[in-house]
Write a structure and sequence with these properties.
Helix content: 25-40%
Shape: globular
CATH superfamily of one domain: Type I PLP-dependent aspartate aminotransferase-like (Major domain)
CATH topology of one domain: Aspartate Aminotransferase, domain 2
CATH class of one domain: Alpha Beta
Bound molecules: pyridoxal-5'-phosphate
CATH architecture of one domain: 3-Layer(aba) Sandwich
Distance between the termini: 17 Å
Strand content: 5-15%
Largest sheet: 7 strands, mixed
Strand order of the largest sheet: 4-10-9-8-7-5-6
């Protein structure tokens, strides 16, 4: 079976002349070269060579209604002719903020920004400004965007002080970022005990979606809530992936654990750039202009993104959650059965519309274990699926997503492709 991506190959050669590495975000750099997209509709991506792929990457999360959703497109089109950006407030910002406050448990107030990265950066600054403390706890392998406070490598174990994950980040910036392994209560207890008087916040992805799909152990998020409350530390849920996905109110509604602050993004903009910091009024009101924590942006509350957000959230009804979860569960179960049938060591995790297979014989509870997965086998699985016209994120450490447009026929095709690929994986 051959995949013809000759035009993509040529475009990649051209792209490399003008763009760093030929791409604008590192995960798009697929070896030997990525396919270039011409257009997308519903659950399909169409590349420049005329291939049509069933898409389980969905732009790394946002496209839960499928691509080019008509209601969103129409709303955005109408807004386009009314102007792109005003630098003045609009009524639509109130509408979207109210929608968030109505469904996200911790949200009493909202600040819109332009990306998940901006949201976590400002949420951490807010936590520091509010508590007047410097240190933060972050989990090994958790991704909170590409800014300096959180771009920290997982240390050799708990309690190691942060070592930057990237050149260009001074140690002075990350030495206040304390790393602990996920799903480990004792490690958090030790870190809190040691740094208690200096800790502003714990920031956590309630389900880790950037090292595959790692679920919190039963009671773990509740434990984080309790230990932060007892020690006057703020708890921030980074819900850039889980927000509007696990349920309309996100992971905090799903697990019944309410943080002090949360960050949103991805689904919130329905494919347009957006982010938001939400939380308790008493804390949120420390942002400028009311408070002393500076936060600003030319494009904050951009009318196009806000319009797309409203039109997207309006479509997330009970049926949406039932259907996207059903499909993810069928595919996760299929992967488990196939791994069994073909004797391939694997662990599969799924929650709501997200799932991932790890080629690993251990239960994946944290980053250290995830890293021990058979990455070569995963890339064989990736290429096997792509040759059969199915696009999953090209990394063992990303997560697959389902949309409302993945129907029974699409699922059947995917299952068939999975079976064929597993035969080759042996
Ligand atoms: C994607 C992501 C971010 C960063 O969002 P951007 O919009 O890419 O800046 C932050 N946190 C989590 C959990 C994410 O998945």
């Amino acid at each position: 079976m051959q995949l013809n991506i000759e035009k993509s190959k040529k475009l990649f050669e051209e792209a490399k002349k003008y763009l760093v590495g030929g791409v604008n975000s590192p995960v798009r750099y697929i070896k030997p070269y990525p396919f270039f997209v011409e257009k997308a509709k519903d659950c399909y991506l169409f590349d420049v060579d005329g291939n049509k792929y069933i898409d389980y990457c969905l732009a790394y999360g946002p496209m839960v209604l499928g691509h080019a959703n008509e209601k969103v497109a129409k709303a955005v089109e109408e807004q386009l002719y009314k102007g792109f950006s005003y630098g003045c407030p609009t009524e639509k910002e109130i509408i979207l903020a109210k929608m968030i406050v109505d469904c996200v448990p911790c949200a009493e107030k909202v600040r819109f920004v332009n990306s998940g990265t901006e949201a976590t950066m400002s949420a951490i600054r807010l936590a520091r400004g509010y508590t007047k403390k410097k240190k933060i706890i972050k989990f090994d392998g958790a991704y909170h965007g590409a800014h300096d406070y959180v771009l920290v490598k997982s240390g050799s174990g708990s309690l190691t002080l942060g070592i930057p994950n990237s050149a260009g980040i001074p140690e002075e910036t990350t030495k206040n970022t304390i790393l602990v392994p996920f799903n480990d209560e004792e490690a958090v207890e030790r870190a809190v005990k040691e740094h208690k008087d200096d800790l502003a916040c714990i920031i956590v992805e309630p389900v880790m979606g950037n090292v595959g799909c790692i679920l919190p152990k039963e009671g773990y998020l509740k434990f984080l809530r309790e230990i932060t409350e007892e020690n006057d530390i703020l708890l921030i849920f980074d819900e850039v992936i889980t927000g509007f996905r696990l349920s309309k109110g996100g992971a905090q509604e799903y697990f019944g654990v309410v943080p002090d602050l949360a960050t949103l993004g991805k689904i919130l903009g329905g494919g347009f750039p957006i982010g938001a910091i939400v939380g308790k009024e008493e804390i949120m009101d420390n942002f400028s202009p009311l408070g002393s924590v500076y936060q600003a942006g030319t494009f904050n509350g951009n009318p196009i993104s806000i319009t797309a957000g409203i039109a997207t959230l309006e479509q997330l009804d009970d049926n949406f959650y039932k259907q996207t979860e059903k499909v993810a569960k069928i595919l996760a179960d299929t992967l488990r059965e196939l791994a069994d049938k073909y004797n391939i060591p694997a662990k599969v995790y799924q929650i709501a519309s997200m799932f991932q297979i790890y080629f690993n014989d251990k239960e994946v509870l944290n980053y250290e274990i995830a890293k021990q997965s058979n990455v070569d086998r995963f890339m064989k699985y990736f290429w096997g699926m792509l040759k059969r016209s199915i696009f999953i994120p090209p990394s063992q450490f990303e997560c697959c997503f389902t949309s409302i447009k993945h129907d029974d026929e699409v699922v059947d095709k995917t299952i068939k492709a999975m079976e064929d690929v597993f035969k080759e994986l042996e």
